[in-house]
From TrEMBL:
Family the entry assigns: Belongs to the HINT family.
MF term (GO), any: hydrolase activity
Motif Histidine triad motif: chain residues: 122-126
PROSITE patterns: HIT_2 (PS51084)
Xref: Pfam families: DcpS_C
Domain HIT, chain residue ranges per copy: 30-139
Protein name listed in UniProt: Adenosine 5'-monophosphoramidase HINT3
Record keywords: Hydrolase, Nucleotide-binding
Domain of life (superkingdom): Eukaryota
């Protein structure tokens, strides 16, 4: 007997995971395909949690994208429990820079485009270096404290405070 439950204000399900090729894979998502090695894109790093590859439109001499290997939506859909994931993404970004001989880790830009300014809904951390060599348009496009780009530090702060107030 199928009774119609009147669904109360349940917890918001942030992970609308499409089950395509396993959990956390969205077959319509380009970054899912890249992380799943279907696009012929060179993966500079891949593990269960995080993958990294080059941005096809580099905004600086070094421009990498670090993404969760599973589809977790954009930065607006994150909650406090994703802080460790974001921190891991930053960590891998730092590692990739070092592997590619970027020595000055203070002259870098790490951040996320804020919806609706994301072209891809799959969470992706932009890692750019050296920040001082970014062109005019890139400075604008990846501008910290703008309403379209949030730095990794800011996002982590936001996520942490989310948990405390709610
Ligand atoms: Zn995806
Ligand atoms: Zn972006």
């Amino acid at each position: 007997m199928a009774t119609n439950e009147s669904s109360g204000p349940a917890n918001v399900d942030i992970s609308k995971i499409n089950v395509g090729q396993g959990e956390g894979y969205d077959k319509k998502c380009i970054f899912c395909k890249v992380a799943n090695n279907e696009m012929g894109t060179e993966l500079l790093h891949v593990d269960e949690e995080v993958s990294c590859f080059r941005d096809i439109k580099p905004g600086a001499p070094h421009h990498y994208l670090v993404v969760p290997t599973r589809h977790v939506g954009n930065c607006k859909s994150l909650s406090k429990e994703h802080v460790s994931l974001v921190e891991k993404m930053v960590e891998i970004g730092m590692e990739i820079l070092q592997k590619n001989s970027v020595l000055d880790l203070s002259d870098v830009r790490f951040g996320f485009h804020w919806p609706p300014f994301c072209s891809v809904s799959h969470l992706h951390l932009h890692v750019l270096a050296p920040a001082s060599q970014m062109g005019f348009m890139s400075r604008l496009f990846y501008r910290p404290n703008s309403y379209w780009f949030v730095t990794a530090d800011q996002l982590i702060q936001q996520l942490n405070s989310k948990g405390e107030t709610n």
